[in-house]
Design a protein that fits this description.
By secondary structure, the protein is mostly helical. The protein has two domains: about 90 residues, Alpha-helical ferredoxin (Fumarate Reductase Iron-sulfur Protein, Chain B, domain 2), CATH 1.10.1060.10; about 55 residues, no CATH class. Helices cover about 50% and strands about 0% of the residues. Helix 4 packs across helix 6. It is globular and about 50 Å long. About 20% of the residues are buried.
Length: about 160
């Protein structure tokens, strides 16, 4: 079997430990997938191409169409865990610069503010109306966040 190369030795090792080879191509993962039903990702196609080593992570766009609902994993009778494989493949794709613009913009906002959504006037008003505190992230939390980002793959991604 040709090994899938993701661009990082660590991710290649992790994927090799996953039982992708157990996939019997029964299609149960795809039959339950809400994204596929809407014309998005086809889990069986991703697993097949990953196991054959022909998935081009630097340009594969369908990985980002996964709703991360884990329905495919719950349905898989072979223990392949398609949702985890897709998440790992997304990590490999991101490491190669294949990140949709809306995800990279959200990551940049998170790195800058500690929030994954803009803290707009509307957000502030809604929080006030609900009796919630403002979303001010304390400086010590931002320092901890910067350390976490540096120590994870998020700090290695090219987001521009």
């Amino acid at each position: 079997m040709k090994a899938l190369r993701t661009g990082t030795a660590e991710l290649d090792r992790v994927l090799e430990e996953r039982p992708i080879w157990k996939c019997q191509q029964c299609g149960l993962c795809s039959g339950i997938c809400p994204s596929e039903k809407a014309g998005g990702i086809r889990p069986i196609d991703i697993l097949t191409r990953a196991s054959l080593g022909v998935l081009e992570l630097d340009r594969e766009r369908s990985l980002w169409l996964c709703a991360v609902c884990n329905s495919c994993t719950e349905r898989c009778q072979m223990g392949v865990d398609p949702a985890e494989v897709i998440a790992l493949l997304r990590g490999g794709a991101a490491g190669l610069g294949n990140i949709p613009k809306h995800f990279s913009e959200e990551a940049k906002l998170f790195i800058r503010s500690g929030l994954s959504f803009p803290n707009t006037g509307m957000t502030k008003k809604l929080r006030k109306d609900l009796g919630l505190d403002d979303l001010a992230i304390p400086p010590e939390t931002m320092l901890e966040l910067a350390l976490l980002i540096k120590r994870t793959r998020l700090g290695e991604l090219r987001l521009d």
